[in-house]
Specification:
An eight-stranded parallel sheet has the order 7-6-5-4-3-2-1-8. The chain is built from ten helices and eight strands. The termini are far apart. The protein has helices at 15-22, 34-43, 62-71, 81-90, 109-112, 125-138, 161-172, 196-210, 230-235, 245-248, and strands at 52-56, 75-78, 97-100, 118-122, 142-147, 177-183, 217-223, 240-243.
Length: 253
């Protein structure tokens, strides 16, 4: 039975693009767009605060990130540990939370513990076990999402849906991680509407797990949708959408 640390608890930046992404679904509660935000949330039957924007800041400079924070960004997502560290240090005083959204190698796990509030990409049992071990060594509880290979793509990481339903009980006993929900990236599609069935499938997997009422497992978060398809993802239940290009422009490696 899980105890202690992991007991459940509840060019320049395209500033116009940030505000557009925030309006109406992502604006802050105290903004002048609150009424519009409420109307749009009502359309999809969601509380306004249940949908949050994760700004994907891969290759984005600290100065540009600061512009984004000034425009309202409050959650920043990084793909690479080595790139994230200097940004996190430079922005220590900024009112933001950091999420790890890239593929995480076991040898890098020790580096992410304590840096990121949420890891989106736990794609196998062994990785969950390593995160649990390293978090225990650090005296921490690490919030995670389980990555699902929702399209059954042989070249993509992630749990197969049926396997995950079976394995989640095994991960639930790990005492230094807290499973908060699921993440998925659908296969490439010809249009955004074609991604809808994959988002719906992830929501269904979360529902299958939630009804099991496994102690220590929450299905509060669905991380799905990016710059080209986040609106459809929101309609299908996304609570976290990862948007980079639509805010910061085309990435330059």
């Amino acid at each position: 039975m899980k105890q202690s640390l992991c007991q459940l608890s509840g060019p320049s930046v395209r500033i116009g693009a940030v505000r557009q992404a925030w309006r109406p679904r992502f604006v802050r509660p105290d903004s002048q767009d609150g009424a519009a935000r409420q109307r749009e949330a009502d359309k999809v039957g969601r509380p306004p605060g249940s949908i949050r924007l994760v700004a994907a800041t891969k290759t984005v400079t600290v100065d540009r990130i600061q512009e984004g924070i000034g425009a309202g960004l409050s959650i920043l997502g990084e793909n690479r540990v080595q790139e994230a560290v200097p940004k996190i240090v430079a922005l220590t005083q900024a009112p933001v939370r950091w999420h790890f959204i890239g593929q995480l190698q076991r040898r890098k796990v020790r580096s992410v513990i304590g840096l990121f509030d949420l890891i989106h990409s736990v794609d196998r049992l062994e990785l969950a076990q390593e995160i649990d071990r390293r978090a225990g060594e650090a005296g921490r509880c690490q919030d995670i999402l389980l990555e699902v290979n929702i399209g059954g793509e042989p070249t993509k990481a992630g749990f197969r849906p049926d396997d995950l339903v079976q394995l989640v009980s095994t991960m639930a006993v790990l005492s230094h991680i807290r499973i908060k929900g699921l993440m998925a990236i659908p296969p490439p599609t010809a249009d955004t509407e074609s991604a809808r069935r994959y988002f719906g499938k992830l929501r269904d997997v979360a529902t299958r797990i939630a009804v099991l009422n496994i102690p220590g497992v929450m299905m509060d978060e669905l991380s799905m949708g990016m710059s080209n398809d986040y609106e459809v993802a929101v309609e299908e239940g996304a609570t976290l959408v990862r948007v980079g290009t639509a805010i910061f422009g085309t990435r330059h490696a």
